[in-house]
Amino acid sequence: MYQMIALYLTIFFEFLLALAFAFVYGESKRTSEYGPIQTKGYKIRKYYFFALVATMGIATILTLDDLPYHSAHAKESATTETKVVEVTGLQYYWEMSEDHFTIGDQVEFIVTAGDVTHGFGLYTEDLELVAQTQAMPGYENSVYYTFEEPGTYQILCLEYCSVGHHVMIKEIVVEPKGGVENGE
Amino acid sequence: MESSIHPLAKKTVIYYLMTTSILLIFMMILGVIMLLNQGEMIQISPEWFYKIMTAHGIGMVGVAALGGTSIMWYFLSKYIKLRPSIFLQNFTLSLIGIILIVIAIFGFNFSDAWTFLYPLPAQSAQFYGVTGPLLFLFGVLILGVGYLIMYAYLAARLIKEYGGLGKSLGWDYIFRGKKGYGPPPAVVATTMVVITNSTAVIAGAIVIIGSIINILIPAISMDPMLAKHLTYAFGHVFCNATIYMAVIAVYEVLSHYTKRPWKSNKAFLIAWNASTLFTLMIYTHHLLMDFAVPTWMLIIGQVFSYANGLPVMVVTAYGALMIVYRSGIKWDFASSLLFLAMFGWVAGAIPAIIDATIVVNHVMHNTKWVPGHFHTYMGMGVIAMILGFMYYFNKKEGSMKHNHFDTFSIALYFTFFTGIVGSFLYAGSMSTPRRWAVHMPEWVLSDQIGAISGIFVVLATVLITVRFFTGLKGVGKTT
Ligand code: HEM
Ligand SMILES: [Cu+2]
Ligand SMILES: [Cu+2]
Fold it and tell me: Residue B307: which H helix or E strand, with range?
């Protein structure tokens, strides 16, 4: 979801930017005195400055509230237990204490590394990146994800870790509720 | 007031620019090879891919730094007398560094990326031998030392001429209400770069020396998190400094062409002071996915990355628009490249700022989105400034004139560079990871678009470089 927001916002702002540059280019062949242009330009700049600060302020307020660093979601719904999964990244494979889940599972991945720094990237079946954290030797990072769709997910390595970086893929399976594995 | 540049410094500018342009073409070809491989149009081994990636990364950063340095030195010489031997020593040490790096990568298979994230080089040293990592780390260190010597000299000169680095950053005008204009923009920008980049290089030197010691004596190790902080304090600031050096050409050339003054008024000085501070603070946006870093530090990373967009957007780019507006400016290679470069810088800052948002970074960090934004402000920003300066230099110091051919090359360059960065950003929005030698079928189309765009960018750069070298002949005659 955030990927699409990022893409469209970028296109939107870059379009505005291109318009501004094209406009000034179009006006560049005419000449008039710089003094009045500066006076007017500085006035416009004030509004422009406040508009930018306001945009950034709003973005900050909207986004700082839902940081991925703690299990905000897990605490909200105290009825379900959080499954704890230990993950270790090694050249060039992932060790996980569990790799089969059921829909609705809230999982805390406790991620570390055994040799060099790797990156734990959780991808859906459609290859959309939905969560990540760094896997650094000597550190444990907890990243939370609740599985809502069944399918084969993949862990891809997201920190360059030498020549096998791109083969560091692990599949994990998420079954529908009452699926085959549960036998109910 | 204006003193002319020392003949040896002028010659050294030529050395810098020749090296920059030739290296640029080679590094771009490496970039195209990577895309051809990811796009499954050619096949190279992963070992080769990652060697090429390492060479392209460090090589391009070197290109931007050399080009930026030559711009800074050239224009700063107009305002303060500089000793050309320092300029030449930086060039020499850079060359030695580059040679060691090339030997490390292609002779001893070093492929741990230009960010050499600890403990990766030490790990590789165990498997593939210590020579590669050591040569690479020493190469970068020597390059850094060259810069450190140059910055120390520039700091000494600025202090001598202006009475302190605070003064050459215009503190008298900001805090003490002094009226009029501050030091020339070239001086203000140089001060900013001296302060931020010396800090960066020292941070880099510490982590490099730490890595070297760890390779030689594995019992002595570093904390990987501390090492990462130092690495990005170095890498982030060093890359940013290339823009802040190169932008001096925009100030100088656009004001020259429009015959309008670009002076350091209060807003200008405040902007540059803010950049100085923010540039040093925001490298933590590279660690947003290191959850072990204290959250307040990461929030600073987000908030000040936003704020760091303001100086360029509100003062520098806006200033470029204002100075050009109804100025009757003559558009030639230099003025149009520098104008477009300001567009490129801001266009790259936009996706960068969006990615510095923690919740966005959570699903876009280390995807192709990242090369997407930095190729925009490096390729269409810094490099465009450097190419613009190359033309300007030949025109000012020689007898080069713009022709239709140049209009074509510039249009070609910008059109297809937009193709490259567009394909990267699109790939990033599809979650394509960065630094993957082999791509999944879903990602291949964007790589092919990038590769084809890249071929045309190489072509445009070759045309621009050929014109630069032919133009240099005129410079020889007038010296
Ligand atoms: C023809 C133009 C260019 C092409 C085709 C190109 C292509 C590429 C590709 C394919 C990558 C690796 C992407 C990945 O992670 O999968 C890359 C990385 C990079 N490029 Fe370029 N590039 C070009 C120009 C530039 C320029 C002008 C600069 C800077 C001045 C630059 C700096 C870098 C850096 C710093 C990296 C990061 C390397 C790493 O991840 O370790 N590139 N480029
Ligand atoms: Cu990896
Ligand atoms: Cu950065």
Answer: helix B295-310
